[in-house]
Amino acid sequence: MTRILILDGHPDPDPARYCHALAASYAQGAAGTGHVIHRTNLSDLDFPDLRSRSDWEEGPTPAAILALQDQLAWAEHIVIVYPLWLGGMPARLKALLEQAFRPAFAFGGKAVSPGGGKLKGRSARIVVTMGMPAAAYRVFYFAHSLRSLKRNILALVGIGPVRDTIIGAVETRSDESRKRCLQRLRRMGEQAA
Ligand SMILES: Cc1cc2nc3c(=O)[nH]c(=O)nc-3n(C[C@H](O)[C@H](O)[C@H](O)COP(=O)(O)O)c2cc1C
Fold this sequence. Notes:
By secondary structure, the protein is of the alpha/beta class. The chain has helices at about 20-30, 55-60, 65-75, 90-100, 105, 135-140, 145-155, 175-190, and strands spanning about 5-10, 35-40, 75-85, 125-130, 160-165. The protein has eight helices and five strands, in the order βαβααβααβααβα. The longest helix is centred in the last third of the chain and has 16 residues, at about 175-190. The protein has a single domain, classed as Flavodoxin domain (Rossmann fold), CATH 3.40.50.360. Strands 2-1-3-4-5 form a five-stranded parallel sheet, sandwiched between helices. The site of flavin mononucleotide has 15 residues, from helix 1.
């Protein structure tokens, strides 16, 4: 039994967004096999952008961010689902990570010391959807922003191993193909993978 935090990183609350269905499928699979899940939707969270180093290091942490930090510390496995926007994660999701991964919490002190904080040892799965085919993102763009999330953000706070699922051509897939992707996410949830 694994404690899983599912962070639905789509900024848009519209239930028609495919990322929400993917997060829900993972959650159903995980809960159905006895894993303990907590789902947090970025679109529900109210928090300001960070604007200075002093805010990052010493500023008051907004209530929504404190709650997320508790969930991150609680989890053994973290699933982040988001759409590719202008080549990377949506700005609002980046803003959330900047807020949550404050030095005292994520690095164990003021200095940025990799893996020194409360997140060390957690595994993760990144699920990213996009308009272009997945192969184009991997081969032509070297999955650049995904690598950045893995290496410059998650590895830095000690999260690993990190696996990924790229779901491309989202807007042109058939309903059948979209359903197959949902089933794939459900199986991942069953395995807490
Ligand atoms: C603001 C914005 C920027 C986007 N930028 C890209 C992009 O750079 N590359 C890409 O392949 N698709 C891009 N897309 C398409 C989205 O990735 C795609 O619509 C999304 O993954 C579909 O999932 P959803 O239904 O959960 O929104 C963009 C969409 C929006 C709204």
